[in-house]
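re: ur question from earlier - yeah i can do the single chain one, its not a big deal. heres the input i used so u can compare w yours
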Amino acid sequence: MNPPINKRILSCNTLITIILGKMKNENLIYGITGFVVGLVVMMLIIYSSAAGIMIVEDESKYSFEETVEKIQQVSAEKGWKIPSIHRIDKSVNKAGYNVLPVAVIELCKPDHAAQVLKDDKDKVVTSMMPCRVSIYETDDGKVIVSRMNSGLVSKVFGETVAETMGAANNDTEKIFESVIKKRNWLA
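and the output i got, formated as tokens:
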């Protein structure tokens, strides 16, 4: 028969007291310091790698304009709507700044959107709707396809949102495969 809970707690407290009592204060300080330093290092590693995990970027095999056109074409073929294309560079250029081409394409698949919008508890992710992809040109002439890793982000949310965002991520990655250069995993 197990002892009552309060006796088990007492036994646990007694055991901790015995262990700590046998440890010298110096060892306890080293242990706590090591734990805190380890925690800080772990947090710094997570913080410094977060952007690389949350954003996916690939080089396009086409020019800027061809990349934008190809994404529009393949999106339509796969049943995705494009509510808007924002030419960020043109807006900034009008304000007197000279920047290279940047377009943000909004992608929406009504089937996926309906899944998220039908339940109030899932609407928390509407600030990330519709899906977006950025196409920009770099100083060295490369064209980059940049997007949020919504497959990873979806894992934070439960049930419908996770399933829907995961499916949308899989769909949009198939669209982007039509323009990105194949990755050399051995490089």
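The chain is about 55% helix and 15% strand. not sure if urs matches, ping me
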